[in-house]
Structures are given as structure tokens and as C-alpha cells.
Structures
1.
Amino acid sequence: MDRKNRSNCPISYALDLIGDKWSLLILRDIILRDKHFYKDFISSDEAIATNILSNRLKMLEYDGFISKTRDTIDRKRFIYNPTEKGLDLLPVLIATMRWSDKYSTEIKQRPPSIEMIRNDPIGFENRIRAKFSNTPTLLDRHH
Amino acid sequence: MDRKNRSNCPISYALDLIGDKWSLLILRDIILRDKHFYKDFISSDEAIATNILSNRLKMLEYDGFISKTRDTIDRKRFIYNPTEKGLDLLPVLIATMRWSDKYSTEIKQRPPSIEMIRNDPIGFENRIRAKFSNTPTLLDRHH
DNA sequence: CTCTCTAGCTTGTTTTTTGCAAGTAACCAA
DNA sequence: TTGGTTACTTGCAAAAAACAAGCTAGAGAG
């Protein structure tokens, strides 16, 4: 479970943690799409394999990007949430979306969040952050 | 040389293009470290393999992130430069560096750019952009 | 105690990355 | 013009990672 750390560079530091094909998509699901359960991630369009998802959730928890707690209402399942460290990747997600908004001419239908980011990126970020501000308890009311 | 495009999402769109271990580091070298030649990328601390570097340079050129032109002064080599599309990833690079600045407690010595970003991120971005604003000619005077 | 639902794990296969060695093309110097 | 140097480029075998599909385990529900 150890991370490698290819160099002292801040870019490579982040890439060594979340620079694979899937980690950032899972964080996107948790942070921007209000997904909090294993089955939610499975159902995303990108079709991640179950073993990869399981591994990435473990990694992301181990590295402190997300927390994993058993759902008190339906104790069969676990709730995945961003930590502050994970939520602090929001500017990276937003910057990436703005770039894609400009250059992905192929993509037909853009998510509504793209509109919001285009009009008011700071307000968008604040609203997302506000969603998670009342610490761990907020998720219990989701289901 | 075809890109896959796992879904319609703007995050996955960008990841499908530059979401591997190396592409963003090459762009970092070109955009933030004034590296423009093959041997410069080879000499970076992360130690990329020659075949991967060659492949990624091809991909980045094919996807329009960088341009490759023969050096008019030393015609043995090629000059790699960011396109506007590549340079527009600067906010992603900066957001990533700011995140690492906050969370990479292990990293001992930070690059001076981190200080500049911390003090004045917008000014930093503008100065980097200005460096590349006089289109292709600017690189000829580098060597 | 069995059934179902959620969340994984296992296994076998394919793809990608890696490390290294060899190859090629432009230029330079004798 | 020939031999060396620089700047890449290509090829190959081994290792690592991703993938697909089927299997399992644990927590309730009936």
C-alpha cells in the first residue's frame, strides 16, 4: 500500500497519489455527483471493474482522501465521503472541467455543472464545499 | 493513436487524454520549467523511459497539446512547445501545485514557483502565459 | 435457516509500462 | 568522406496493471 514518490515535485507528488485512470473519477462521483455507495460508483458510465474499484477505494481511504463508514440506516453498506484533503481537490476538478469545456468539441451534452462553473466558478466551488461543511453527519440524511 | 473517450464527462475527457503517469509531467517541464528538448525531459528527476517519452511526445503532439519543430540553429534536434490548448492546462497545474503545497508534508524542498503561486497565483499564471505570448518565435532565442 | 442484497475477492487473460539495447538521422570535424 | 557525437526512435522481454467474469462473505429480512 506504499506510495512511490518519483520526485520532490508538487505535480508528481499529486500524480503519484491520484494520477491513475480511476481515482479522480471516484472523487468526482463523491464530490460532484453525490455518490456515496459502492454500487453508485459501479453504475457510472465509465464502467470500472469491481476489483479496481475496491482497490482504489482502499487506496483513497488509506491516503486520506475519503472516509469509509458503515451506514447506520442500512448496515449492509458503507458510506464513502470526502475528507478535507479530498475536498481540497475541488479546484483541480473545476480547472479540469473548465479546460474540457473549452476543448471537448466532440462531447455532445455537457453536465449542468459546466454551465454553473462557466457563470460563477467561485460560487460553484463554495456551494459544493457548503454541501460537505456540516462534517460527517450530513450524509446520514441522504438515505 | 486513437483516444478512447470512456464517457461524456469533462473530467474523464481530460483524463483520457492526459490522465497517465507521464503526460502532465512533460507538460510541466515545457510550461513551467522552460524545457524544450528531448534530452531535457530525459534529465528530469522522475526518469522516464526513452520509449515512453517518445510515445508521449507523439501523443501530445497528435492531440494538439504541444508542437514539434526542428531547431533552426541545431538542426539535429526538435523544439517542443506548448500550444494554446496545452498552455490552457496551466490552471490545472497550478491548482495541483497548491493542493500539494498544502498536503505534501514529506516533501522537503519546494520549488520557488510554489512560493510565487502562494503569494500571487493569478500573477504567476499571467507571467507564465506572457512567456509564451509571442508565439513560435520566442523559442529561437533560448539557444 | 435460507434468501437476497451489497460489497467485495479470485482467477485467468490482455494491455501497458518498464528497462535496456540497438538502430537511424543530422551535423560536425578532420 | 569518414568517423564521432548528439538527438532521438524502435524493438524486445519482463514486470506490472487493467480487465472480465464468476465466486464469496457478511448483514439483515422473512
2.
Amino acid sequence: MSITYREVKADILRQITQGELAPGSSMPNEVDLAASYGCARATVNRAMRELADDGIIERRRKAGTRVRLNPIRQVRLNIPIVGQEIEELGAAYRYALVHGQAEPAPNWLRARMALKRDDRVLHLTCMHYADGAPYQHEDRWINLDALPEAEQHDFSDIGPNEWLVSTVPFTEAQISFHAVQADATIADYLDCTEGDALFQAERMTWLEGQTITFVQLTYRRGHRLTMQY
Amino acid sequence: MSITYREVKADILRQITQGELAPGSSMPNEVDLAASYGCARATVNRAMRELADDGIIERRRKAGTRVRLNPIRQVRLNIPIVGQEIEELGAAYRYALVHGQAEPAPNWLRARMALKRDDRVLHLTCMHYADGAPYQHEDRWINLDALPEAEQHDFSDIGPNEWLVSTVPFTEAQISFHAVQADATIADYLDCTEGDALFQAERMTWLEGQTITFVQLTYRRGHRLTMQY
DNA sequence: TTACGCCTTATGTCTATATCTTTTGAGAAA
DNA sequence: TTTCTCAAAAGATATAGACATAAGGCGTAA
């Protein structure tokens, strides 16, 4: 077999990391590289395309390909379902519905979810436990105008997140991470002290332009979101 | 021109999101799809490969391709240099070196960075300002065994991060995000109240197995890390 | 019944060639 | 000098055909 695109990619990457190809310098074109590797241009193309995708090199038609001055550092973050997250830690997962009620959307939420004047929402409060200890507190609002069937659904056994991903699997979302101080309620749920710094994720989800759900996920004290790159 | 791989990809994605292809169901093979789209197999292959990469479908040789039961939700997070991050906010960036000193590595750091018994580190404390207001506090340790030239370098004008990405551009790293309570020192630097919940990133960087640097980046009160997917 | 091994099949990848698209840079025009 | 236009260059993508590889499944042997 001839040389593979992986080998080409690895070789180019080696040249870059070992300094044979300096950051900012431009590279030979695909035709020449294909000739020097003794392979087809498509093979070189795939290698280069992936390197560009990885943020290592920059490609522009006619201008050619050059090694990025500052390689883009990027990580892929998998957004897990909390149950899977806990089970991957090797802990037993338990879910509890604390509170669930359909209600008119409060003003702050109406603005945030871009709801109409008299839209109703289903407000759910849930807890997720790892080996019996509080792991995550979930405060969720579901737009009943977009998902009226949510009102009939019983969330005592399966969490709203799991129900949502199976009901409306292909949505757009925005997620944001930040730090909050535990108030008395949260401190009680998460078994920590009022004022403790907690890691919180907020997620807003849309389907075809319509807001489906907004959720605040507050993690137990000391939680870390870790990634390799 | 014939149909593009983007069109094929878009069409398959449409079929999935609109429920024509149910989650968990298996799809026709590449040859059949190519025939039905009236294009080459390579075109279908690229569309399917990207969908698999996006976590929408699952592919296995011989077994074929099926729509994932639970599509993997993933985001790409670009790790920015703080200066760029601030300038992208449209604010003026200012950097200040607070403190810099070479010293023997303290025990906790030795363990964390996997340093040898008598390795020395350069401990740098810096501040990053956006439009004059504190934005980020940086507490950094550089392994002088791995990067002795750091000791001679003057960090009063350019931050250690910028120096590092230009000196050792291609490294491996682990990054983790969490929440911390501001202690008196940090509160003073970041102009907030002691006990405030702050968003903190920790990053450890390696080059060929050797630990290069460890950094704690503490953001001003209210900082959010936001992503779309 | 169970375990091993081969055959078939679907995806993975390479080749060679062709056309399309974007963008640069040169030359013409103002 | 500046602006506009256009051709060439390089990457982006399509095609047809071939072979490689992994793995499901069936048949055979223990």
C-alpha cells in the first residue's frame, strides 16, 4: 500500500512541531507535496484539510498554505447528560423530582426566553445524586407553548433532560459556565454552606427559532469541568 | 455542477431532524445513497463522515450507518489568549506584572507538576485589565528545568502566556474550570469582596512529557464562558 | 451446543483526472 | 497615483475505479 493521509498528516505535524516548518512560514502547494510524498493530491489534501481544521495551519485559495503564527488552541467539549456523567465517574446515579408546577412565566424569564405575554412554563426543580450524595441541582423551565405535552408528562422517574433529548433530540443551544454563591436554598440541597462558590451551567435550547427550555445546573462544591487538548 | 457533499449532508441532516430518519434506525449504504443522489460514492462518504464527526450518526464497517440514539452534543471551545479575549470584547487591554521570582517549587506544586526534588520554578503573578478595570488575575509557575531561558526573560511588558505560546507553541495541555471563593488578596486585585464566587481556569501544559507550566487564571466577578452549539 | 474460521459486505482510503471557486496581483484605465 | 478589470494560481470538490480493513454471520468441526 502507498502512503496514507494519516502518515502525511503526521509527517507535516512533526515538521511543524520540530521546527522544520516555522510558524508563519508558507508551505509547498498540494501538487508539489503530493509529488514529494509520491502520492495523489487528494491524499495530501485530506491531510492538510484536517490540519487546517485542527487550527495548526491556515489555507487560502491562491495565497497558499502557511503554518499558523499562533496555533488555535481548541478543545471539544462533550455536553453530557448528568446521569451518564455520574455513571462514568463510577458512582450510582439517583434522580429526584423536588418540585414541578406549570405557571405563567415570570418577567425575567419571559425576557430571557423571548416568550409571549401570556405564555406558560413548566417549572421543574430536580436533584441528581452520586452514590447518595448531592451532585447537581437542576432548575428548569420548559416553554409549554412550544412543548405542551410536557405538562402531561410525569417527571418523577426520569429527569427532564432525558425526556427532552428523546422528545426533541435535534436542537440548537447556548451554554454558559460561571461561578455563583450558594444561597440558603441551594446550600441546603447541595449540602454545603451558604456563600460557598459553586460552579453553574446555564443552557438555553431552541428548536426552529422557538425557545424550548432554559436550565440552571448548579454543581456540588468543588466540581471541575476538565478537558484535554 | 453536480450535487455537492454539503447538499448531501444538509439533506441527510434534514431527514434526521425532521424525523424521516428516526434515531436508532439504520441508513442505506453509501453505494445506494450515491445512486439515489446521483453522485459518486466519495461525495456521500464525505457527507456521512462529517455527520459522524459531528456526533449525529454512527458508522461501523460491515454493520453500516445508523442515526445515533442520543446525538452527541459537543462544542468546540477556543482557548484564547487573554489579551485577544479582551480586545474581542472591544475593550482596551492592559497588562501588568505584579510579582516575579524564581524559587524552589513548593511541595504541592512539585506533586502537581511532577517535578524532581530540587527543581526550581519561576513564579509569576500578573494582572490583566479591560478598559482599566481588573479582568483576570494570573498566578503562574514555569518549570525552570524545562525552560531555563524563562529566568532571564523580562515579563514586565509581555505576559508569560504570550511569551510561552511563541516560545513553545505546540504543547499538550489540560484545562479545568471551576468556582473559587475570593480570598483577601484576590479580592483586592480583582476589586471585589472577599468570599465572592469567582470563575477560575487552571491549565497545565506539557511538551514531550515534561511539565512546562501550571497556571491559575481567576476572572473578575460575573465572568461567563459562553458557547453555542 | 459451542468455538473457530472463512466469506461477504460496508466503510475506509488511495489514485488519477477534471472542473469549480476564490483571491491575488498584474496590467489597463482613469 | 489610484482604481478597476481580468487572468492565473491554489485550494475545494466531484468522479470512477480499485484495493484495504474490520466485523457480522454462517458453516463446520469439536
